């Protein structure tokens, strides 16, 4: 496999491969608000990118554009070498390549934990029920909630629900996993169990883009930190450099408030 260094990124960790997600000159407005400004970002196979920035800087919008939960006004986004189609069956197929985990777990309330994980593979991937269930049980085991399979989401703790949400996303065998503040809605004692699952996933080579304020996760698992402010990528670099020697005033100001 050839290894191509994504444009504009720092040194790559050995073993990191070709670009999986490539955004070029992406712009987006919400009415008058220019929420994404000339975003260029390339995320390589196996890379873990943590997106940081003040509230309202465009982090959620950025990752939501990657599976077209938001449209863009100009520029291009490719996932696994394919331009993002705007609608239809192609979009559904491409969306299946992109796993997404939200702040609010978004599990199907009236489906069991097991069904939450098997539904996507059965409906979108046309998997057989038995195969989907075998695979789902493996994933639930991997995130440590296999014993909860028959329960319903409301019967689980927030941390357990979020781990199910991760298993559900993984069941589609995605090329990249997007996380939007996955631990922000959790009680403090449940944050680490979710971060541990994410750290494991990163260690197993999953390509991940993670919006989080958990600096411990960024230090431990990120290959690269991307800092956003007012819709722009202001600065990026390896976590150690970013945290100890941020280059921009805006990053220094942000870090002084959160660290
Ligand atoms: P972050 O995730 O960094 O806090 P967001 O991407 O959620 O930032 O939001 C960026 C800006 O876009 C904010 O000013 C927010 O109020 C605005 N915004 C987000 N979603 C919408 C929307 N659907 N309609 C209008 N404005 C929005
Ligand atoms: Mg957000």
From TrEMBL:
Swiss-Prot/TrEMBL keywords: Amino-acid transport, ATP-binding, Cell membrane, Membrane, Nucleotide-binding, Transport
UniProt-listed InterPro entries: AAA+_ATPase, ABC_ATPase_HisP-typ, ABC_transporter-like_ATP-bd, ABC_transporter-like_CS, MetN_ABC_transporter-like, P-loop_NTPase
Documented EC number(s): 7.4.2.1
One matching Pfam family: ABC_tran
Top-tier EC class: translocase
SMART domains: AAA
Main subcellular location: membrane
Catalytic activity of the protein: a polar amino acid(out) + ATP + H2O = a polar amino acid(in) + ADP + phosphate + H(+)
Family: Belongs to the ABC transporter superfamily.
Protein name as annotated: ABC-type polar-amino-acid transporter
Protein source organism: Raineyella fluvialis
């Amino acid at each position: 496999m050839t290894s191509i260094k994504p444009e504009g990124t720092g040194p790559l960790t050995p073993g990191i491969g070709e670009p999986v997600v490539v955004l070029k000159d992406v712009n987006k407005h919400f009415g008058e608000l220019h929420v994404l400004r000339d975003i260029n970002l390339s995320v390589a196979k196996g890379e873990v990118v943590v997106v940081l920035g003040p509230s309202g800087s465009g982090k959620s919008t950025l990752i939501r554009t990657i599976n077209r939960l938001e449209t863009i006004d100009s520029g291009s986004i490719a996932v696994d070498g394919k331009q993002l189609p705007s609608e239809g069956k192609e979009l559904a197929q491409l969306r299946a390549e992109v796993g997404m985990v939200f702040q609010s777990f978004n599990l199907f309330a009236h489906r069991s934990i097991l069904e939450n994980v098997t539904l996507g593979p059965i409906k979108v991937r046309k998997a057989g029920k038995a195969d989907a269930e075998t695979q789902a049980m493996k994933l639930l085991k991997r995130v440590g909630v296999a014993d909860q399979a028959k329960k319903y989401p409301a019967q689980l703790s927030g941390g357990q629900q979020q781990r199910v949400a991760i298993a559900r996303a993984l069941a589609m065998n995605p090329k990249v996993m997007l996380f939007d503040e996955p631990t922000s809605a959790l009680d403090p004692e449940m944050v680490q169990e979710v971060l541990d699952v994410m750290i494991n996933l990163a260690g197993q080579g999953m390509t991940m883009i993670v919006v989080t304020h958990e600096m411990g996760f960024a230090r431990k698992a990120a290959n690269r930190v991307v800092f956003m402010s007012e819709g722009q990528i202001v600065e990026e670099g390896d976590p150690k450099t970013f945290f100890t020697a941020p280059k921009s005033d805006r990053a220094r100001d942000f870090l002084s408030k959160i660290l």
